[in-house]
Amino acid sequence: MTDQRTPSALDAAPIKLSRKDFASDQEVRWCPGCGDYSILAQTQKVMPDFGVPKENIVFISGIGCSGRLPYYMNTYGFHSIHGRAPTIATGLKEARPELMVWVVTGDGDALSIGGNHILHSMRRNVDIRVVMFNNRIYGLTKGQASPTSEFGQKTKSTPSGSADYPIHPLVVALAAEASFVARAVDTQTEHLQGVLERAGFHRGSAFVEVLQNCNIFNDGAHRAFTERDVREDRQLVLEHGKPMLFGKNHDLGLRLNGVRPEIVRVGEDGITEADILVHDETSEDPTIHNMLARIYWPEFPVPIGVIRNVPRPTHDELVDAQVRDAIARQGPGDLAKVLRSGETWTVQ
Amino acid sequence: MTITKGHEVPVQELDRVTIRFAGDSGDGMQLTGTQFSRTAAVFGNDISTLPDYPAEIRAPAGSIPGVSGFQISFSSSEIHTPGDAPDVLVAMNPAALRANVRDLAPGGAIIVNSDAFTPPNLAKAGYAMNPLTDDSLRSYTVFDIPVSTLNARALDGLDMTSKQMDLTKNFFALGIMFWLYGRSMETTQAWIEEKFGGRPIVAEANRRALNAGYAFGETTEIFHTTYRVAPAHLAPGTYRNITGNEATALGQLTASKLADRQLVYASYPITPASEILHQLSGWKNFGLKTFQAEDEIAAIGAALGASYGGAMGLTGTSGPGMALKAEMLGLAVMVELPLVVIDVQRAGPSTGMPTKTEQSDLLQALFGRNGDSPIPVVAPATPAECFDYAIEAWRIALRHMTPVVYLSDAFLATGSEPWRIPELDSLPDLRVPNRTDRAGFYPYERDPETLARPWAVPGTPGLEHRIGGLEKLDVLGTISYDPDNHHRMQQLRAEKIARIARDIPPLDVFGPPEGELLILGWGSTYGAIRSAVERLQDTGRKVAHAHLRHLNPFPTNTADVVRAYDRVLIPEINMGQLRMLIRSMFLVDAEGFNLVRGKPFTISEILAKAEQVLGDPARPTR
Ligand code: SF4
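Structure tokens for the assembled complex are given below, as produced in the milestone run.
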């Protein structure tokens, strides 16, 4: 392979834009109090940070409440069909690797009807940033169980309680080899901005789960660990190179007992900070990342932040390199010659 | 048998010969048939071929399901089909004989590898008695030749196992056929050199097998006549032999050159369309990109994404894949982006008979989506025409900003015929501009003539806008639930496609402009219909043939054509899909001729049906 890099939207000289450059003229129409407002606001806020002209940014969505986000972004936008946004994004990146492409999706869109496309866009390391709003319910269709709804949860479609076990979105993303995996919370705006910004600067398949509150159909789905007064005790804010400490006094930590994680208190039973796991988001080995993607409240604090971030050649770079390689090896295609390939004969 | 060196045999001149090569899938019959076809084509005959593959990749050796066949018809005059009944059957084992003998023309010749007629092989083919000795083949001329034995003898001394040697016996048979029809071995010898040059023993084995077969014909006295088929008078030009799938792939590549845009082909493997992916993925040095998607939906999604980005998004599939692509095709209608979907039709419903031909996706292509979602449909009529209609599909897609369905079928895809290679400057200019001017830009403002909307691709400053599957407000392109707007947009989408009729050639009629009978066809039935109509016209009947290549919209004169004859007959390899359209759109009492057997019509079937219709006084259409 030739080592020329495929140009990325991030390579160009940064230009100066502000948040309002990214707001479209469309009236935002989510239910009042919906977590989507905050995600939209943080998204608009971080866009200028990339220095990418807005005509080079594309938001592609599927169906669901999340699917409306592109209409509110003054960039290029494509509100597609249920679950298929990653396919359109993949084709767009194949044709136009230099564009910065975001996929906006929800738990139903990404993990139910579109599950296959999430798997394959991640494993190919297509250079897209998937932001999945996880409200653990179908909102747009008014309240049916989603693949992340809790076991036993009563919804309109599961009046006797859901008999389906929920999926762990980030475990799926890791299993699919996403090269960037992170979690944030709609109401923790600064942290959310930070995660979106990191995803934006990543090259390759980024998967961001945003825990989002649907105040109409599943109000408080994440409340137990996102309320302001309990957050510090019930969330583990991950930072690369830092020990996995949490709690109001920053003295609770995660350590491995054999292959299993356990919560310990620094200063008790002779435990020191040296016993606590140190977060390495760049580790090729995904074992700890898988553990972080799986642990959840109430057994454990809910990890938020960047779980995994590894460099890998992107799909569009690889495909582009194959084209450059073919041209280097065979010379640029000569159509007249190809039309005449194989045995030919001439009739006078 | 007596062997005398170089005995003289009389030569008989023939106008047309049809040969079927048949054997076990491992016997290399496709290769043998292809080599014979190339040689006939290079010699200057008009040719038409039809391969017949088993559906299973590895059916048990020697069994009837494992039989693979290849039919070639070559002629000194223009031909349109691979021939009704073969004149000669080359059968490499009992199963091949059993599966094909009933298709043979009466008095036809059978050449068999008698070495394969062992008791176990006879049993596998279901023969209780050996047909070579029980007189059951008495109405044919049978040449039983111990091909395996003779071939092994010719290869004696080569460093190969006897099993490896036996793999070349098809070239021995090919050598016999070359001798019998007075053909040069040069094309095949060159092919052996090219293919096995790096493996001298294999090359030598194939060369020896070929030569030994030829010499066998020359030196034995079992054949009393050899045959010559003079070159056909084809239009001047440079020719090559081409299958429909090859022509489709080449047409797509050419279209991208003519449009000066990148082609992105996204596809999921499916019989019989996969060759298109294989072909296109070998042409990366043209800058085209291919993508093997995770499923049919992802394939069309990626194609649409590429078109959204300003490339030529292309996807290809067969019937079951078409069904899966339906929702995305509807989105393409809504967002009004150019996109081409190749459907190489095969026998359905469901998985059906994947390697067998059918024309049963016509209504699916036209209507198989939710909502009123009109899509232009084109269908090539012959393997070589696949090239032209790949370009035509893109001409329509780009000029009218619409998805287009291109209907090929398994018969076109794998069949072949000589193709006159076009000069590039004779082909249409497909270039269309992207919208770049921001003054007065509205995403759904339409070209007053074609009603096409502007193609404003991401990366264009000042044209940032949002599209999607929700109904659009006329001109502005924002979301709209307004009832009158929806009605207007439905009409605009329909009118946009209807207007394409102004931009396509009229329906061409072969024969009298009015008369007793019109045979109307579409797609791969062309050859059989044309040949049958030629014969009817030779007997003085006022019979005409018209063949639709544009199935949506129809050419503007279609109504006049179908109303100009006493009777209209529509042969289709489906249950009557075009007939339904013609009857409902033009109120013409067209009759159907529908044989749905996974194989093409023969000329004589069309002829017999036409004669029956002509002889029946009932139901005049006017
Ligand atoms: S239904 Fe729920 S997710 Fe959807 S907009 Fe309303 S609050 Fe938000």
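The pocket of iron/sulfur cluster is lined by residues A 30-31, 34, 36, 65, 135, 139-140, 214-217 (CB under 6 Å). Chain B touches chain A through 72 residues (CB under 8 Å). Further analysis is deferred to the final report.
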